[in-house]
Design goal:
With 145 residues, this protein is mostly beta strands. It is built from one helix and eleven strands, in the order E-E-E-E-H-E-E-E-E-E-E-E.
């Protein structure tokens, strides 16, 4: 099976789903509660995380400009090219030959800004003379701890 990302074909060697056990109990993010050792079912991460398989790709984050929204350096990002992007979304964008991950903002004057989520960086204002393209919306960030 072939998948296409930005006009390039990539061979997907094993398109079969891998089912991972899903525990019956929920893990508390507050005060811990006793948990049963039961498995509810299996979970397919492709079904949970990927809505448009032929328009989805993974990319690894570099740098710390998005740490305030939980995207750590070396995080694996799941990017969906089929989802319509809106102001406020986290996107992967191309400016010239450079790729970046930023929050897309469209202000009241219609200006497009790519905003880092780290106060140490400044927004990028996109003007009409820039070679600019949104590659897709970040739908999930997987950080290693």
């Amino acid at each position: 099976m072939k998948s296409f990302i930005a006009g390039r074909a990539f061979l997907i060697e094993n398109p079969d789903s891998v089912l991972i056990p899903l525990a019956l109990w929920r893990a508390s993010c507050g005060f811990p509660s006793p948990a049963d050792d039961y498995i509810e079912t299996a979970i397919d991460l492709n079904q949970e995380l990927i809505r448009h398989p032929f328009a989805t790709f993974f990319v690894r984050a570099a740098g710390d400009s998005m740490v305030d929204v939980g995207i750590q350096p070396e995080a694996v990002l799941i990017v969906d090219r089929a989802v319509e992007t809106r102001s406020g979304d986290i996107v992967v964008a191309r400016i010239g030959d450079e790729m970046c991950v930023k929050q897309l903002l469209i202000d009241d004057a219609g200006r497009v800004l790519l905003v880092p989520k780290n106060e140490n960086y400044k927004p990028i204002i996109i003007d009409e003379n820039m070679d600019f393209e949104i590659w897709g919306k970040v739908v999930c960030s997987i950080n290693k701890h």
